[in-house]
Amino acid sequence: MKSTRYNDEFVSLVYSLVNDALDILPDDLEKLILKEEDLNLIMEGAVTYEGGGEINFSLTPNHFGVQASYVVLNIFGSPPSNVTIPQSIYYEGYDSDDNFPKRIRRGVEHIQNSENKSRDMYNLALNLLVDMWITNFKKGGYKIGNLPKEGVYLRNSNEKLYCYEEV
After folding, report:
1. Host domain of residue 72
2. Count of domains in the chain?
3. Phi-psi bin for 156: left (phi > 0), alpha (psi -120 to 50), beta?
4. 41 within some domain
5. For residue 1, is it within any domain?
6. Per residue of the chain (167 residues), what is the pLDDT tens digit?
7. CB 3.0–4.6 Å: which of 26, 80, 108, 159 could bond 76 by disulfide?
């Protein structure tokens, strides 16, 4: 059951972040996440999360959704408003620091005076979500061969991200 504090903008934001994270992840990790109808299960996990508590690093679609919701609520607030999904994203490369509450605080403080706060908040959320999911797999004992490329990602005509300029 969807929590009443989650508006349509929240659901759209989580859906965009989840899809963008899947676009950035290496194909082998994306396939592990998207077995059968897992995107629906990820979204279910996102809209049933009530906030608070520690992040569970289980490799289940529900927990991937909870993590997406956790990132959105801690960066954009509840419920988020006036969020623009950017056409270009900068992925900073995998950061193995798994202290996500500290990384969120530090990131939010850094972008407080940004000229394009909505874009920078989305970039922060996407970077953290991708890193969180990679951390899930590492903690789950998966050997990860290719990490996502650091660089600028653009949307194609189907709204999928592709690496435009590798750094």
Report:
1. 8-166
2. 1
3. beta
4. yes
5. no
6. 444 456 788 888 999 999 999 999 988 888 888 875 678 888 888 888 877 777 777 888 888 999 999 999 999 987 787 888 999 999 999 999 999 999 999 999 999 989 999 999 999 999 999 999 999 899 889 888 889 999 999 999 888 898 888 87
7. 80
